[in-house]
Specification:
Order of helices and strands: HHHEEHHHHHHHHHEHHEEHEHE
Number of helices: 16
Radius of gyration: 26 Å
Helix content: 55-70%
Number of domains: 2
Strand content: 5-15%
Shape: elongated
Number of strands: 7
Largest sheet: 5 strands, mixed
Structural class: alpha+beta
Strand order of the largest sheet: 4-5-3-6-7
Length: 430
C-alpha cells in the first residue's frame, strides 16, 4: 500500500539523515565542527521547502511532510546530542547562523525584486512569491528553533532527576515535549503563509512523535557506542541566554561568599577579583613580569556524567594539588568556577610562563590512577604582563582567548604568551 511505502521511505530518510550528520559530528576532532554546521544549514533549506510544499499520506490517515517529520526533528535531536557532547555555547552557533542567514535571505529577496530582470526564455522566470513564502517560513522556523533548543536542553538536564543516567528515556521525553510545542508554533506560521489545515497539525504531531522515538534510539546508540566522552567548554563572559544553560552563575555566586574554595582548598573567584587584580596592578606599576594562566579541565562534564559527581570532586582535589605542587610558593592558585582554575605567577613571563603551563599540563595528564579511563587532561591559556597587556581585564581576556585556541587545536595543550620585551629575571619553579 502507498501509505506503508511512504512510512518505509520516511524511516530510510531518517536513518540516512542521522547517519550522515552523526558521522560529521563524530569526525569533529579531525575536520572541525564547520562541516557539521554547514551540512545542517544546507538541510535547513530543504527542510523548510519540503515543509511548505510536500506532504505524504501514512497509515491511520496521517498526513505529514518529510521536511518537518524527518529533517526538523532530526536536526533538533542532533543539536541536543551536540549539547550533550559539547555545551550550550557550541549549540548556539548554528542557531544564530541559521537565524541571521534566513533574515538575510528574506531581506535580499526583497531587494532583488527591485531589479529589472532579463528573461532567458519565456518559461524561465524568478518566482519571488515562492521565495518570500519560503524565506518567511525559514525565519519563523528558526525563531522557534531558538526556543526549542533552550527548552529541550533544560528538559534534558531536568530529566536526570527522573531517569538518572539512562540516556534513551531522557532523549525521548525531552524530544516529545519540545516537538509538541514546536508543532503547534510552526503550524501557526504555516497556516498563515500556506493555508495548511488542521489535519496537517494533527498528522504532523503524530508523525513527529514516531520520529522522536526513532531518533531517540539512534541518538542513544550513537552516544553510548560511537561517541567518545567529551566535556562542556565554558565561556564565562558570553552574555546571552545559552551561557546560563551551563549553570555557572548560581555556583559562582555561592563561591563568591567565601575567600577559599571549600572543596579544593584553592582561593576562590572573589579572591581572584581582589588579590589577583591587585597583583597585576602592582607588577605593572613596578615594571615586574607576571603571568596569568587559565586552566580548564578537558571534557570534565563527561567525567562527571560517567563516574558521578563524587568522583569528579575527588578528581578536582587531586588536580588542585598537582597545580599547587608545580607552581612556586609565591604563586597563587584560584578556582575560577567549575573545572576552571587561574594561576597568578609573579616574576615570570614569556617562555618561563609557557614552561610553567606545560609543566602543569604534563602533571595533570600523568596523574596516576587505577582506571585509565579516569585520567584527565587540561587546556591552558597563558598571558604575560606587560608584553601582552598591563591591565587585569585585558590580561584575562588574552589568556581566555588562548585557552579557547588550545581547545580548538585539540585540547590537552598550552597556548602561550609572547616573550616579554627586555630582561626577564629568572626564578625557580618547583
Amino acid at each position: 500500500m502507498p501509505e506503508f511505502q511512504n512510512l518505509l521511505w520516511l524511516v530510510i530518510d531518517a536513518v540516512l539523515y542521522f547517519g550522515a550528520l552523526a558521522a560529521l559530528l563524530r569526525a569533529r576532532s579531525r575536520i572541525g565542527l564547520g562541516a557539521f554546521f554547514c551540512a545542517l544549514g544546507v538541510m535547513h533549506f530543504l527542510e523548510t521547502y519540503l515543509a511548505g510544499i510536500l506532504y505524504v499520506a501514512l497509515p491511520l490517515d496521517i498526513v505529514t511532510s518529510p521536511g518537518s517529520t524527518v529533517l526538523f526533528t532530526g536536526k533538533l535531536m542532533l543539536l541536543l546530542v551536540l549539547y550533550i557532547r559539547e555545551d550550550a555555547v557550541v549549540v548556539r552557533q548554528p542557531i544564530y547562523g541559521l537565524l541571521l542567514g534566513n533574515v538575510l535571505l528574506f531581506a535580499l529577496a526583497y531587494v532583488m525584486r527591485q531589479h529589472i530582470p532579463v528573461a532567458l526564455s519565456a518559461d524561465r522566470a524568478a518566482d519571488f512569491g515562492f521565495l518570500n513564502q519560503t524565506g518567511g517560513l525559514m525565519v519563523w522556523g528558526t525563531a522557534i528553533l531558538f526556543f526549542d533548543c533552550i527548552i529541550i536542553i533544560l528538559l534534558y538536564e531536568r530529566s536526570r532527576a527522573w531517569f538518572g543516567d539512562h540516556v534513551f528515556p531522557r532523549l525521548l521525553v525531552s524530544g516529545a515535549l519540545v516537538l509538541s510545542f514546536d508543532q503547534v508554533a510552526f503550524f501557526i506560521g504555516l497556516n498563515m503563509l500556506t493555508g495548511a489545515g488542521l489535519p496537517v497539525l494533527i498528522g504532523g504531531w503524530v508523525a513527529k512523535m514516531g520520529a522522536v522515538a526513532l531518533y531517540g534510539v539512534m541518538a542513544a546508540v550513537y552516544l553510548i557506542y560511537f561517541e567518545r566522552p567529551a566535556g562542556r567548554r565554558t565561556a564565562p563572559r558570553i552574555w546571552d541566554v545559552f551561557d546560563t544553560l551551563t549553570y555557572r552563575e548560581r555556583y559562582e555566586d555561592l563561591l563568591a561568599r567565601t575567600g577559599c574554595d571549600a572543596l579544593t582548598g584553592a582561593l576562590d573567584r572573589h579572591s581572584l577579583e581582589s588579590y589577583g587584580r591587585r597583583a597585576v596592578e602592582n607588577a605593572a606599576s613596578a615594571g615586574r613580569p607576571l603571568a596569568m594562566l587559565l586552566i580548564d579541565i578537558d571534557h570534565f562534564k563527561a567525567f562527571n556524567d560517567r563516574f558521578g559527581h563524587a568522583a569528579g570532586d575527588t578528581m578536582l582535589k587531586r588536580i588542585t594539588a598537582e597545580i599547587m605542587t608545580n607552581v612556586s610558593v609565591s604563586d597563587f592558585t584560584y578556582r575560577f568556577g567549575g573545572e576552571e582554575f587561574v594561576v597568578i605567577a609573579d616574576g615570570i613571563a614569556g617562555d618561563e610562563a609557557n614552561a610553567l603551563g606545560e609543566s602543569i599540563r604534563r602533571a595533570i595528564a600523568a596523574m596516576p590512577g587505577d582506571d585509565p579511563a579516569k585520567r584527565v587532561t587540561a587546556s591552558i591559556g597563558v598571558a604575560s604582563c606587560a608584553s601582552d597587556a598591563s591591565g587585569y581585564d585585558r590580561l584575562f581576556e588574552i589568556a581566555d582567548k588562548r585557552l579557547y585556541e588550545a581547545k580548538a587545536l585539540g585540547r590537552n595543550r598550552v597556548v602561550g604568551a609572547r616573550p616579554p620585551i627586555g630582561d626577564n629575571p629568572m626564578r625557580l619553579v618547583k
